[in-house]
């Protein structure tokens, strides 16, 4: 099939590369000239495991191309994915402006009957607005489809290639047939393609992110209570996760959720509830619990260093909002860094992928280290913020030797409390006894 994807960010690039990988001819379009120039030379604007070889191979073999010429991309498409950003507006609701801009261009430049797919996460009830915008100048019939994306940054290629499910919101047999055909190669192991009405598909995306964010905030609160009452959240997590009604995933406490999706989607969902007179009390609490959680590591550092915190130097392992990505959007590290700088603390951070993005946001307000050990030099404490694999088994003797004093605040519960005690490290994690 001839596919075009408008918006070549974390989602659009993965969608485009994976659809090319199954033999489609895919054109990825974006207004960002620098991004497109880079991609044409196989320089990826994002870090995402497994994505670069897909882009290289499919571009080499002529199935994948990149352009800033949106009219051309629209004109050649049988199926067009809208994958532009839907950032939060000032009041927290998702801003549909970029989606509608693209919809308007589609109407103007479409050259045949086509399926118009909203891949961006759009507020429930957006489809009629998108349809109206396309219809203003459309000279051919078009079929709307809401196809929310559930990929996780850091596992995006794997998630797209082997999805747990594909959700298709459609209102015509043509859209249903074309989209089911397009996704068939990805669900050969029997994972379902769930076909539903468009409004329900739009709602499914928000409900999924709301539920996942709720699990994280719930566990963070339980972990904070464990801290106070002397329980160990590792035991509690396994104890509840073995209940088949609960399950083990998404039960790890930490420094709060971040990224481009959970914070903005929870806010947008709360806004939607308010707007239609159904206040979402649980999700409003999920959001405030998360805001509070982003301050927990600073509190722990304050307790560990006492009045020596002011003027101290802290080594930070991890800047990205999670491992496997360079995405710094709403990263808990940013809240922690602001708090530390306000307290007169200097920060030296390491991250295997996110330093360029961090530097764009923070400039030289903090120092950046080439290696995680280099960050420790002259530091009064180490704080672990992101659960990158390479931080899981460090050389602790070297860590102890390099830090000015052996203090570790571990926001991801990576290390064994008993082992830290044996090593003589002052160790604080989230919801577990200190050493
Ligand atoms: N990042 C994720 O993990 C994820 C997962 C599922 C869904 N989503 C949703 O997918 C959408 C895209 O997210 P993302 O993280 O890929 O965003 P992103 O910011 O990484 O990428 C958006 C891209 O769209 C381009 N763009 C903006 N306006 C444009 C226009 N008018 N024409 C052409 N290109 C334009 C931008 O230049 C940018 O490259 C959002 O709605 C998001 O909520 C994201």
Can you walk me through this structure?
- By secondary structure, the chain is an alpha/beta fold.
- Helices cover 43% and strands 14% of the residues.
- The protein has 17 helices and 14 strands.
- Strands 3-2-1-4-5-6-7-8 form an eight-stranded mixed sheet, with helices on both faces.
- β1, α1 and β2 form a beta-alpha-beta unit.
- The site of nicotinamide-adenine-dinucleotide (NAD) has 25 residues, from α1 and α5.
Structural class, judged by helices and strands? Answer: alpha/beta
How far the N terminus sits from the C terminus, by CA atoms, comes to 59 Å
Low-pLDDT segments: none
Rounded Rg:
23 Å
Tell me the helix content. Answer: 40-55%
Read across the widest sheet, the strand sequence of neighbours is: 3-2-1-4-5-6-7-8
Query: Could you tell me the number of beta strands?
Result: 14
Q: How many helices does DSSP assign?
A: 17
**Broad shape:** globular
- Strand residues, percent: 5-15%
Features:
eight-stranded mixed beta sheet; binds nicotinamide-adenine-dinucleotide; 435 residues; 17 helices; six-stranded parallel beta sheet; single chain
Short description:
The protein is of the alpha/beta class. 43% of the residues lie in helices and 14% in strands. It contains 17 helices and 14 strands.
Describe the protein's topology:
Layout: E1 2-6, H1 10-21, E2 25-29, H2 33-40, H3 51-60, E3 64-67, H4 70-75, E4 79-82, H5 97-109, E5 114-118, H6 127-135, E6 142-146, H7 156-161, E7 166-170, H8 173-183, E8 193-196, H9 198-229, H10 233-241, H11 262-275, H12 281-293, H13 296-305, E9 313-317, H14 332-342, E10 346-350, H15 355-362, E11 367-368, E12 381-384, H16 396-402, E13 407-410, H17 417-423, E14 426-428
Parallel strand pairs: 1-2, 1-4, 2-3, 4-5, 5-6, 7-8, 9-10, 9-12, 10-11, 12-13, 13-14
Antiparallel strand pairs: 6-7
Bound molecules: nicotinamide-adenine-dinucleotide (NAD).
Nicotinamide-adenine-dinucleotide is lined by residues 6-12, 30-32, 35, 83-86, 98, 101-102, 120-121, 149, 151, 153, 260-261.
